[in-house]
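Quick question: what would this complex look like in 3D?
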Amino acid sequence: GENVEQHPSTLSVQEGDSAVIKCTYSDSASNYFPWYKQELGKRPQLIIDIRSNVGEKKDQRIAVTLNKTAKHFSLHITETQPEDSAVYFCAAPLFGNEKLTFGTGTRLTIIP
Amino acid sequence: EAGVVQSPRYKIIEKKQPVAFWCNPISGHNTLYWYRQNLGQGPELLIRYENEEAVDDSQLPKDRFSAERLKGVDSTLKIQPAELGDSAVYLCASSPDVILSYEQYFGPGTRLTVT
């Protein structure tokens, strides 16, 4: 069916360590993969995105990797800090729709 | 640049009452979205506008939900009558261009509680 699966649902990481969140999608034609960060009671904010013509994109401590063959993409956060604690959502457009289907979210907790 | 503005931020109503949410997108953004976000879940699209035209409302429960975007700028989402299961955060988002419509910017949302 049309879905975006996200794992894990919760993740606790020691401050300074790396965190990785993975999403799989069902439509091989999907060509845009954003990641949103949502702090408690606040709006989802776009933190990084990648299009299907590249395999990796980095922005300071965050990076996104894309494996089109396996239909999965991952968010990598290095040198984690307490302010990285939030819920992270992946998304992808599925089956020609001009809309994003969101994953179920990962609650990331950075342990000081 | 001002972001997407929504009001009210919070609303508590009794079931069977009507409620309306308002959204002002980022200036110049032609595409506007209304999402519903239930606790612990990702946003789910209710309706998408290209200018003043609703181009995707397949997920909108049309028996009780309605939306409009007069003049292709501000938008309102209405629920009448509200049910207990409508309690959620209603998010508005906008995009600057149809081709780049995947890049969405969200408003702060309206947290609706139906009692």
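Answer marked as accepted. Chain B has a mean pLDDT of 92.
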